[in-house]
Request: fold
Amino acid sequence: MGLLRTDIWRTGILSCPMSEILTHGDVAGLPVTWLPDPGPFRFLADPFGLWRDDRLYLFVEAYDYRVRIGRIDVFVFDRGMRLLEVRPVLSEPWHLSYPVVIAEGDEIYLLPEAYRSGRLTLYRAVSFPDRWEKVPEFVFPEAAIDASPVHIDGRWWMFYSPSGGSGEDRQSLLHVAWADRLRGPWHPHPGNPVRRDRRSARPGGTPLLVDGRVILPTQDCTGTYGGAIVPLTVTDLATTHFAAQAGAPIVAASEWAPYTDGLHTLSAAGEVTLVDAKRISRSPRRIAIELDRLGRRMVGRGAGG
Reply:
């Protein structure tokens, strides 16, 4: 009955800084602004954002089970959390997700996950927020999954899960790389994988510097993919050393029902925090959607032959 199972994510904006959520270890009771429902068997997930000209630009993975190739959309909000605009900003022939947005000096970059392309690609905004070009000199050691960068004391660090190996590896291994510049060159940590734990290894949001230490949101995948966010406090971060300690899981708030089956992302955007929560659908309509998709694929192959 696995075909009937469908993970549906809902993205929200919490009116609370991420540092406070990490301190309290809970999201219950916080005011939340939900993004519009995109419709049946579609979802919006992996939110990352930044403020610019008094606007919140929230980038998400937009996914449709009928197509099964994610693209990146942007939702623009004002300070009152009124939605001003929605538009697609990046699509490729392969699946895109986890659109980390980075402001560095006068430049804005987008670093989406695209491991099915065989590489990690950095994009530079030509016209923010919807025109992007690839940065050709950015070469990363592997096709990283959920790559999460942070800049500390003049050095860039990248936390990610490896794209090789099994599905279990992609949920239970943490790798690290470092560089003096965002564009690289990037150097893999000699201790990779620096962590092996399905409860607290795969990144799930913005690495945040709190009291001099990096706290990396990670996904607890022991019961279900993206079941909760486990804050991983990095206690030793160097080019030759790594150590970290997992905290208590942060789970979806009960008042978010029916989206209480998982909490998948915790990312910082100034005075607000971006999250996505999951409900598990078991509607038999999923079978019809898969049959239709497979039928269209076979027709397309026949026409191409």
